[in-house]
């Protein structure tokens, strides 16, 4: 989806207009060269000579500044012309890969900022205002959903209490008549209550949770230790790229190094495959492997504890409230991933929906702003370095001036994409593909980035016969990704409201 439309003809026309303006300015400057640098002394006295020299120096400085402005103007016009040509070439080339587009866009923005120092600050203000407006619009359409659902639930509980009281008043004589029998039944039920059994069950469940915690912590520590050599090697590669000036690649490898340490792979054993004609349907529930997956497993223990004690309660309003509390814990700690894909091999048409639990989306949002800001700093550093190597010192100064704005814009409004490959075995006989490859292009978003879908590249690695049209990049439906602000203000409260909403 394209959010910006650029007309190369308009850019070229603007460059022509600026060139004409530049010619006029140069003519005016040349005409003023004599009068501003060749002032004659009014008299032969010392004061007149000093005044004449003073104005002469100012005239020379005026000519120097005029020459600098002319050089800046020429460079700006040249940049506009190059930009128009670049847009024409880009449109005719029909785009590229998503990360390449983002990286190229960042470089283009930095190059434009080098030609017009300070422009990045205006872009920062515009992007921030747009995202804040989007954030407020989404919130105002559904303000405080979790709080409103809590209030709605209390109203339901009071209605149930009122109905129970009305029933008791209406049937009061019968209740009084049956009171001795009810008391006797309650006493018998209390005497028959097997407290030892439930105590044993509670102790066993707590031991099980403790064992799960200890085992998971051990697995996480083991995974970190095992992945440390690879982390060191990848960090060394990133450092070498930093030394040679490939700053964006260094940042990308830094992100991959940390990702590979925390996520060592996916358990794709939970897969359901279906075929109908030339259409293949795949439902996969991959599980994260590695320290991050172990951390998510530990996070689910409180929700399991709450569900266990909720199940011990008899049907009542108190149990409903306990179940709602359990649902909140489950929503906040559920790390599940579910991918549903459908592909028609004959037409190469298909859909892909991926649903992520709140912990995973929250993890990406937490890391998103620092990583996007770091990537913006790397882009500015490359722009400065390239300008210096080309002898474009004015461009280098402009990029240096705009670097803080780019860094803050990345922290607030930008996104940096890292690829996450998932290989799902199909178990299908030949000549059908044995594996479906799903490479998710997951974004690290700035704090204010509004919800947006992600994309993925679908391929069939190891297929006996190449499948026309693959690999292909598709838009992924399902859980959107976003920055921390819309996640905390809108998305998570909406998910919690759904978690405690009574079933229809």
Give a quick rundown of the structure.
This protein is 67% helix and 15% strand. The strands form two sheets. Strands 2-3-5-6-10-9-8-7 form an eight-stranded mixed beta sheet. The protein has a two-stranded antiparallel ribbon with strand order 1-4. The chain folds into three domains: 186 residues, Helix Hairpins (Orthogonal Bundle), CATH 1.10.287; 52 residues; 252 residues, no CATH class.
Structure, explained:
- The protein folds into 3 domains: 6-191, Helix Hairpins (Orthogonal Bundle), CATH 1.10.287.850; 192-243; 247-498, no CATH class.
- It has helices at residues 8-37, 46-93, 98-115, 119-141, 145-170, 172-177, 179-191, 195-243, 247-262, 291-299, 301-311, 317-333, 358-389, 393-413, 484-500, and strands at residues 265-267, 271-276, 279-284, 287-289, 337-344, 349-356, 415-425, 435-445, 452-459, 472-481.
- Helix 1 (8-37) runs antiparallel to helix 2 (46-93), helix 3 (98-115) packs across helix 14 and helix 5 (145-170) packs parallel to helix 15.
- By secondary structure, it is α+β, with helices and mostly antiparallel strands.
- 67% of the residues lie in helices and 15% in strands.
- Interacts with host Toll-like receptor 2 (TLR2).
- It comes from Mycobacterium tuberculosis (strain ATCC 25618 / H37Rv).
Attribute tags:
504 residues; alpha+beta; Helix Hairpins; eight-stranded mixed β-sheet
Strand percentage? 5-15%
Summarize the biggest pleated sheet. 8 strands, mixed
Sequence of strands across the biggest β-sheet = 2-3-5-6-10-9-8-7
Average pLDDT: 81
Helix content: 55-70%
Query: Pairing-aware structural class of the strands and helices?
Result: alpha+beta
- The H/E string reads HHHHHHHHHEEEEHHHEEHHEEEEH
* Coarse morphology: globular
Instruction: Figure out the total of helices.
Output: 15
Unreliably modeled segments: 1-12, 36-43, 84-115
Rg, Å, rounded: 33 Å
Question: How far is the first residue's CA from the last residue's CA?
Answer: 37 Å
Question: How many domains comprise the coordinates?
Answer: 3
Give a count of the beta strands, DSSP E runs of length 2 or more: 10
Domain PE: 4-94
Subunit structure: Interacts with host Toll-like receptor 2 (TLR2).
Organism: Mycobacterium tuberculosis (strain ATCC 25618 / H37Rv)
Pfam families: PE
